């Protein structure tokens, strides 16, 4: 029996993830965890989803609750709760606001679901991953942030659409901060197995424009529809599915580094990792050129400083 709990399930992303998971034959129960004042809305979501699931003859238990004890037995607990970005905001603007929520929830997870994997989607995700790691006391392999998985999917999509090539032929990755200081690894990007630097010699494509679009993707969507929704929800569902099926796929997630990549230590950043039912099975080594490495170090310095400020503030409270 595979049980997944979602904390912050009444939000746009949380409920989309819940519905996508409920439709998977690999998930038996989804816990809709909400604050006490939001449980009624969580119940409404489950009633609506049950009607939709009936149309496809799907039996998945949906459990609306505000009781932390209902997290027991969860294989993964996803935290999406927190204040979401508004137009013009950076993800780091949310750090001090969301840290209290993530810290409290991670603490409760450690009590009621001590064998689970904690997955963080709350922004700024790299900082919140560090907060959850500290609050839970879990091994770092079992505290994972969404990191740059969505950024990597976006970059893959942009190359695919602009080149009119099936996305399966595009192999690219974004690392570092999930935010303004993300680092696209163009030096190791391939199209149909051909390194990007050779491919673009015969193809007209504006790389700087693509990277600018990538960095502004979240704000662009928020400015037009008020919130990002399907992209994050599907990226999160993809992570969860990879873990519970023990797929050992390599996805770019935020984890606490201890020198595995570019000798970087003491900070949570997005890096490629093999994911399994145990969480992070292995951090995958990557090659960065001098420019990419410098940008990676800048991202690390920013996230490390912000994380230290957030953790210090939590200790004062």
Describe this structure in words.
There is one protein chain. The protein is α/β, with parallel strands linked by helices and 317 residues long. The chain is 43% helix and 20% strand. The protein contains ten helices and 14 strands. The strands form four sheets. It has a six-stranded parallel β-sheet with strand order 3-2-1-4-5-6, sandwiched between helices. A three-stranded antiparallel β-sheet has the order 7-10-11. Strands 12-13-14 form a three-stranded antiparallel β-sheet. Helix 1 (12-22) crosses helix 9 (230-244), helix 4 (125-136) packs across helix 10 (290-316) and helix 5 runs antiparallel to helix 7. The mean pLDDT is 94.
Brief summary of the model shown:
This protein has helices at 12-22, 39-54, 95-112, 125-136, 149-163, 196-199, 207-215, 217-225, 230-244, 290-316, and strands at residues 3-7, 29-33, 61-65, 76-79, 117-120, 143-145, 170-171, 174-176, 182-184, 190-191, 194-195, 250-258, 265-276, 279-283. By secondary structure, it is an alpha/beta fold. The protein is globular and about 55 Å long.
